[in-house]
Specification:
mainly alpha, 182 residues, DUF5063_sf, globular, DUF5063 domain-containing protein, two-stranded antiparallel sheet, 4% strand, DUF5063
Length: 182
């Protein structure tokens, strides 16, 4: 996008991001309920990857500036603790992982929980979605972009790496065992 985004450009971007956000939230809730079964990790990898695409679109766009430079009040965001608990139950021992959160400023590994990270992302996304659903796409974009750079982008990226690492290790281990058995 150019530095002079038109309202139509912003509206189209807001619509695309809102679609990714809806899909992420619905997917996360389904996995937390147990709908993913044996496919929990691949489904989470897919959901996180798709919402990171929305983040990349926000990151590649010009800065969203609100006309009055303030965010209208939308009330309290929904409580996502049931989703967090459901994810932690589904993930079990895979919930905890180690990450270097900022490879340029923080070189010490820190322990994180996938369930916390995935719900932190959801919390930021649902806040913007509430603006979008109240016919305020510019406020939604501003929030999504700001919180992408400030918070949810890091959590989504860390979650993606952890989910990918688990799947890669699992799949490569299976392939190596099959080669040894022959």
């Amino acid at each position: 996008m150019s530095d002079t985004n038109s309202p139509q450009d912003w509206n189209a971007l807001a619509e695309r991001v809102a679609c990714h956000v809806d899909n992420y939230l619905n997917g996360l809730e389904a996995v937390a309920r147990g709908d993913g079964g044996a496919h929990t990790i691949p489904l989470l990898l897919l959901e996180v990857s798709q919402v990171i695409l929305a983040g990349a679109q926000l990151g590649a766009s010009a800065d969203v500036i609100l006309p009055d430079n303030w965010e209208p009040e939308i009330g309290d965001d929904p409580d996502l603790d049931a989703v967090r608990t459901g994810l932690a139950e589904r993930l079990g021992d895979l919930d905890e992982y180690v990450e270097v959160f900022d490879p340029y400023k923080d070189t010490e590994p820190t322990s994180y929980r996938l369930s916390d990270d995935l719900v932190d992302v959801a919390s930021d996304l649902v806040h913007g979605l509430r603006h979008y659903n109240q016919d305020r796409p510019l406020e939604a974009l501003w929030w999504w972009q700001y919180s992408y750079f400030n918070h949810w982008g890091n959590h989504a990226g860390a979650s993606l790496r952890a989910l990918h690492a688990y799947l890669a290790n699992d799949r490569l281990g299976v392939a190596q065992e099959a080669a040894v058995a022959q």
